[in-house]
Amino acid sequence: MNQNNHVKIEVADPSALGLLGLAIVTLVASASKFGIISSVSLVIPWAIFLGAFVQLIACLNDIKHGNVFGTTAFGGYAFFWFGMAMSWMIQLGVFGEAMRAAADPKTFGFAFIGYLIFTLYMTIGAVETNKTLLVIFILIDFLFIGLALSSFGIAYHFTHFLAALAELLIALVSFYASAANVLNKTFGREFLPLGKPLGIFKNHAK
């Protein structure tokens, strides 16, 4: 007689960890944009470990949850920070003077346009998650608008400031969202509200 045993493996919701990574890296990066930090040299480790690896870990655990939105969001932005870290290292001459000299900063602009497109459709998806996450994605939209325009030198001072301000606000809201995910799960109740989804896109017909 054949007997099938089913083993259920529970995986913790990785949202709090992923949002913490986002909060830390955007806080540090915004300080650089505001000119509080004079160089991106020490932004790079936070971009790699908090922006990239932490969100990649969250992505891989969301895969186990079957969460397409979380997987795509955390994975997409994880590799954004890997790309930014490597780009900054090229600009700093880590990979040699020839590579540094050949780097064209306008390349950033096209990458930021690509990530703006990505973030726009993820913002539509965020409408059906919670209001706090929706606010984060709207702020990321403004971040990439500012980054893309400033990379092409369009109204540079204003768009650079827009990017810096949006990034700082992303950090603050992400800290709140991370705390809410941790404390709500720990206490088994809504300790910090995240806001219900708007519910305007999903098909609720039975």
TrEMBL record:
Main location: membrane
Signal peptide residues on this chain, from the entry's feature table: none
Claim: Hydrolase is one of the keywords in the record: no
Coiled coil: none
InterPro entries on file: Gpr1/Fun34/SatP-like (IPR000791), SatP (IPR047623)
Subcellular location field: Membrane
Family of this protein: Belongs to the acetate uptake transporter (AceTr) (TC 2.A.96) family.
Protein name, UniProt field: Acetate uptake transporter
Organism of this sequence: Candidatus Fusobacterium pullicola
Lineage of the species this protein comes from: Bacteria, Fusobacteriati, Fusobacteriota, Fusobacteriia, Fusobacteriales
